[in-house]
Amino acid sequence: MGILKVEGLEKAFGIETLFSGVSFEVRRGDKVGLIGANGTGKTTLMRCLMGLSEADAGHIRLPQGENIGYVEQEAALGNGALQEELGSAFRDVLGWQAEMSGLEQVIAAEQDEARLEGLMKQYSAIVERFERAGGYDVESTIRRVAFGLGFTDEDLQRSVSAFSGGQKTRICLAKALIRQPDFLFLDEPTNHLDIGMVEWLEDFLVSYSGGVLIISHDRFFLDKVAGRILELEGGSVTAYNGNYTTYLGLKAERMAALESAFEKQQERIAQTEEYIRRYKAGIKSKQARGREKQLNRLERIVLPPESARFNFFAFNPPSECAERVAELEEVSAAYGSRTVFDKLSLLVRRGDGVALVGPNGAGKTTLLKLLTGDLTPTGGRVKLGSRVRTGYFSQQHEGLNSENRLIDEIMQDYGLSEDRARHYLGAFLFSGDDVFKIIRDLSGGEKSRLAFLKLMLTGANFLVLDEPTNHLDIPAKEAVEEAIMSYPGTFITVSHDRYFLDKVANCIVELADGRLTEYGGNYSYYRERKLAEEKSAQILDKQPAKVAEEPKKGKPRQQRPQDKEKLAKKLEGEIAMLEVELKAVEFQLNDPASHADPAASQALADQHARLQNELNAKYDEWLEVQ
Fold first, then answer.
1. What is the pLDDT of residue 526?
2. What is the phi/psi pair of residue 17, to 5°?
């Protein structure tokens, strides 16, 4: 079994040691999440494992012949067609195919038996390598992975340079997945993916046979995929068996044990210091000096710094407002000639925590901007209730003065003392000299935290939040979640962060196919309902149209078990391929741009119906075999 071994790894930049003494293993089949706050060195560690950055000390051992696929956050791509770019992952395989073709011609013309035998052995070795690398399935593999990540037949012929930043991230992901390497390293793979694509990736990785190491701040994703968590904190790595939720429980237990040990050690230190003070100059001075030496050699337990936590809204409660906070009545929206959605209605009541979900392009951000008044509907009415004060969190952070220091931004805008401003900034993980940073020098995540704090200080009783946890590491997400969970007002949010939605939302509203559907409950409840609906639809689709014919009399021919198993596997492969193609068509149907051309839209609908019928027939065949 292949095992990637990391032993005593260390990396420093100048006088600052990023990490040291890092040791762990990743085996074939392991799914390992690598977590830690931004700046702790997760990406640097992964680059050291790949050989892209040189470690200062330690060893990385990979079995001979094993290979690693890597998806970094920003990667360079070519300018050819997508099919060509993905095919470049099979450059060696296609080279073997060309060798095979050349050898076939030579073998056909060879008359000498001895030379022919040598050529046949050479040909057999190349064929074995070609088959082992999945050479006969290159075309179907490219299509399966491309369709699974939301690309279409037309996309395969498009130039890579024409794709958006998010699509390029998916191309890098496809290139890494396509060869199914022995080990797969992923650095923030869910960035720029919508929820449907993230769920596809989860299913892919769960069934992936190789070892997987994932840097991610997506906790729901880590819960679904990871079987072990490595936390990089304070320059060292601590391993926890289980997924992210299990890690939280184990870490809490570890912290409780550490705090208990710390208290006992502090008590022992105090007793020893008292003994030294009393007897250092007396008859027991020798024993006192001995204990002083022991105390100096004692390895002190250090507790990790604790971030400031307080109930912000106990001091800053928003004002009361009407029961009906916001209403959409038959609202339509369009950009030029393109209709985003038509005649949507929604009621948000006081105290609601609404999460707006749906595929990219469905119009979620447009709906938020209608509520804030930044957009005017092309039809229908948007109504806010009496005494409603709206606060809007935008991904662009337009409300920040880039030339201000953090402390000045808070003090000037809200008339706060320095102590109170520091207290609030500390709750959002800005401590010490961080408060004197210039806003233009902040990272994307730091700007998001500051913008969210300012939003809370406005006193708004209705928050409209567009991706509030984007660019945030896990500690920062937890700070935002804590603030929202203690918020006594009303909010509506668009987010792809399912863990966040599970914690803060009490109502999920899905915007898809131009319709709004409401699900009372958090994100997990919404997914359960959706899965139940999909299963019910499949059962209905598979109902026979007529009564089956009476079976003919006579002894039925029995299939051998190995034949049945072979046929079942073949059908499962065909079903998987059809499901991927069906998902790709659904992805196109959900894109409002596809409805601009009625003929193209009808062709997609016809294709969807055909694929669904084929899939139902394959399911029936598979059930018969089983």
1. 92
2. -85, 120
Structure tokens at 138: 């290159």
Q: How far apart (Å, rounded) are the C-alpha atoms in residues 514 and 7?
A: 54
Handedness of CA 29, 196, 73, 356 (dihedral sign): negative
Phi, psi at 212, each rounded to 5°:
-130, 130
**Amino acid found at 559:** Q
pLDDT tens digits for 196-250? 778 888 888 888 888 999 999 999 999 999 999 999 998 999 999 999 999 999 9
Cβ distance 198 to 357 under 8 Å?
A: no
- Ordered DSSP codes for 508-539: EEEEETTEEEEEES-HHHHHHHHHHHHHHHHH
- Cβ neighbors of 158 (< 8 A, separation 6 or more) are 81, 82
- Give yes or no for a contact between 326 and 383, defined as CB atoms under 8 angstroms apart: yes
Sheet holding 211-215, edge to edge: 68-71, 183-187, 211-215, 31-35, 228-233, 236-241
Helix (H, G, I), strand (E, B) or coil at 270: helix
pLDDT at 222: 96
Instruction: Determine the 3-state secondary structure of 233 from DSSP.
Output: strand
Write down how long the chain is. 626
No. of H helices and E strands in the chain?
Answer: 21, 18
Which pair of structure tokens corresponds to residue 469?
């946890």
Question: At which residue do the structure tokens 């997914």 appear?
Answer: 527
Tell me the CB-side half-sphere exposure of residue 53, using CA atoms within 13 A: 16
pLDDT band at 414 (very low <50, low <70, confident <90, very high): confident
d(CA 472, CA 445): 5
CB atoms within 10 A of CB 284: 15
Give the CA angle between residues 601, 607, 610 to the nearest 5°.
145
CA gap 626, 623 in Å, rounded: 5
What pairing do the DSSP bridges indicate for beta strands 228-233 and 236-241? antiparallel
In 10 A of CB 555, how many CB atoms?
A: 5
Half-sphere exposure of 388 (CA within 13 A, CB side): 23
> What does the alpha-carbon distance between residue 29 and residue 208 come to, in Å, rounded to a whole number?
7
Indicate the pTM of the whole model: 0.71
| Helical axes 195-206 vs 165-177, angle rounded to 10° | 10
Indicate the helix (H) or strand (E) that contains 86: helix 82-87
pLDDT digits (tens, 9 = 90+) for 353-405: 999 998 877 899 999 999 999 999 999 999 999 999 999 998 777 788 889 99
Residue 311 has pLDDT above 60, yes or no: no
